[in-house]
Design a protein that fits this description.
By secondary structure, the protein is α+β, with helices and mostly antiparallel strands. Helix content is 14%, strand content 33%. A hairpin with a 4-residue loop joins strand 11 (203-210) and strand 12 (215-222). Helix 1 (2-22) packs antiparallel against helix 3.
């Protein structure tokens, strides 16, 4: 009889714990989706610098494409004299997003096309305000920093897709996480995963932040690859010590003396707020699932396991 009562109590506690996670506050959660871009849904975005939807197309060019108004059949011919070096483009979702405590996932498709050699890259960004970029942030600075702020900037984070090897870069085909400056905190060569950012092929990217584990995870694949994502970077970032609680998300790109097109084809973003109490339930360093979820199941298992252990000890 006692054993049956203990089992019933464990089941009840499991139900209550699961229910508490299902009902956690999400008033500040954010969800939006752009399967394509148009003049209609562009009202939900803030465009800066050279960023625009060219002509009747359904994508965003962060830096101008001199072929955008030409017939597609001529797009591989010699570039016309419409090259814009030192260009910068930025696009932001118009409403700020509560970044912590939260889990968020964003999936977007990028397309990079070299016109004159290549350079310099683009980035998914989290920035403290919707003000414009710094005028001197072209070229290797990706529209994020200038000479006076590079290395000491606070309040922003970028996931860069770098296509040009500067003196401080490991190579010209890498993903990096930038926090205080353009020298990345961590980088990974995309060639190690058989992906070339500037190959002229659409690349789908998934960025996931686990607010419990403080883990920023980056996955990528060619958009026409049906075999699934490959894990590129998994790096610890404490967002509460990096960006404001309320910040703006979007993209930034720039060119230098060399030139290429930086394009966003689609974009989805979803965040789920975490209750402050849930963050205190796990000891620091507790592992969480990283391959495709928030890790809530792991946390629930930890809690139930702890309760079970306590009950069994008292039962003995």
């Amino acid at each position: 009889m006692l054993k049956r009562r203990v089992c019933a109590l464990i089941s009840l506690l499991s139900f209550l714990i699961c229910g508490s996670y299902a009902q956690q506050p999400n008033d500040n959660s954010t969800h939006f989706s752009f399967a394509y871009f148009s003049q209609n849904n562009s009202q939900q975005l803030i465009y800066m610098g050279n960023a625009s939807i060219p002509g009747e197309h359904d994508y965003i060019d962060l830096t101008p494409d001199p072929y955008a108004t030409l017939n597609a059949s001529t797009s591989n011919e010699t570039a016309p004299n419409v090259v814009l070096p030192n260009s910068i483009g930025r696009v932001l979702y118009k409403q700020p997003v509560t970044m912590w405590p939260a889990n968020f996932t964003t999936v977007f498709t990028i397309f990079v096309k070299s016109i004159v050699f290549n350079g310099d890259g683009l980035a998914f960004i989290i920035v403290p305000n919707n003000q414009s970029f710094l005028a001197g942030s072209y070229g290797s600075l990706l529209g994020l920093f200038d000479d006076s702020t590079n290395g000491n900037t606070s309040g922003q984070l970028a996931v860069e897709f770098d296509t040009y090897k500067n003196r401080f870069d490991p190579d010209g085909n890498h993903v990096g996480i930038d926090i205080q400056g353009i020298i990345s905190n961590v980088t990974e060569n995309m060639g190690n995963h058989d992906i070339d950012i500037k190959a002229g092929r659409a690349i789908q990217v998934r960025v996931h932040y686990d607010g419990w584990a403080k883990s920023l995870q980056i996955y990528a694949r060619y958009a026409d690859n049906t075999s699934g994502y490959v894990s590129i970077v998994n790096h610890t970032v404490e967002l509460e010590n990096t960006v404001p609680r309320s910040a703006y998300v979007g993209f930034s790109a720039s060119t230098g003396n060399s030139y290429e097109v930086h394009r966003i084809l689609d974009w989805n973003f979803s965040s789920v707020m975490l209750s402050e109490s849930s963050l205190k339930l796990l000891p620091v360093g507790t592992e969480t699932k990283t391959a495709g979820g928030s890790g809530g199941g792991v946390k629930i298992g930890f809690l139930v396991g702890s309760l079970v252990a306590g009950l069994l000890v008292s039962w003995d």
